Amino acid sequence: MRSRIRLLIAGLALTLASWGTTASAGAAFPSFADCPSAGLPSGSACVDIQSLRGELEIKGFRVPLDHSLEIRGALREPEGAFIPPTGTNGFFAEPVRVPGGLLGFELPLEFNTVLATAELAGSPSQIDISPGEQTIKVPIKVRLSNPLLGRNCHIGSNAHPVQLNLTPGTTNPPPPNRPIRGTPGRLEFTPPNLLIAREGTDVENSFSIPGAQDCGGLFEFNNVLVDLKLGLPSAAGNNSASITNETALLILP
């Protein structure tokens, strides 16, 4: 039985035969320098997924994502298992500013500024990438950074993550959310073995979000403040994510 990577190659071969070749990728993308490719079977692939723009919405409260997310590593044949670069979990994220900060409105004060950083919740083995379908399944937690929130303030945890099942297709969420649809990436091929999907938008609006935890040191009163600001916990059907990515696969000989 052929793996997802081999199915992707077969499908692209038919498509690209009629399209011809396109320009190669830019200098900053893709990034394969730390791909853990040594010893992988033929047909495995280095993978780099970088966000271009996007947002996370919690009961109408929107947090921009922009260029903050990247998943980088390798997909091993035949099962397509994700392998992170050495010394990492393969999930990389930059902090983004939460609109309104801690108080809910803009003030040029350090104690009001809140930065949110997505983190992988659990093991890299829980990252599931399907190149042929352009879907990404990843459990995350969000670290909130602020002088009053302490060092370990999180929304979600390894035990209770925010489970994102991102798809370019149509979602089937519980109410009150309605189905939304993403868009597949624009396929490019650089011979002999580089495949790229440009500006594919993955969406998800069926996930729940737990309440905040470990915010504010011993007192943890700020757990309540964070929950009130973001409307947490937030049941499935009230939240959504939309992320436009560029995805690159370097097929190994």
Sum up the structure in keywords.
seven-stranded antiparallel sheet; 253 residues; disordered N terminus; mainly beta; 2 helices; single chain; eight-stranded antiparallel sheet
Order of helix and strand elements from N to C terminus: HEEEEEEEEEEEEEEHE
* Helical/strand content category: mainly beta
Q: Give unreliable regions as ranges.
A: 1-27
Total count of helical runs of at least 4 residues? 2
Helix fraction, binned, reads under 10%
Q: What is the CA-CA span between the terminal residues?
A: 19 Å
Largest sheet: 8 strands, antiparallel
Mean pLDDT: 84
Radius of gyration: 19 Å
Which percent range describes the beta-strand content?
35-45%
Number of domains: 1
| Basic shape | globular
DSSP E strands, number: 15
Summarize the topology:
Elements lengths: L3 H16 L25 E14 L2 E4 L4 E8 L4 E3 L7 E3 L2 E2 L17 E6 L7 E3 L4 E11 L8 E2 L6 E5 L19 E5 L3 E11 L7 E2 L8 H9 L8 E13 L2
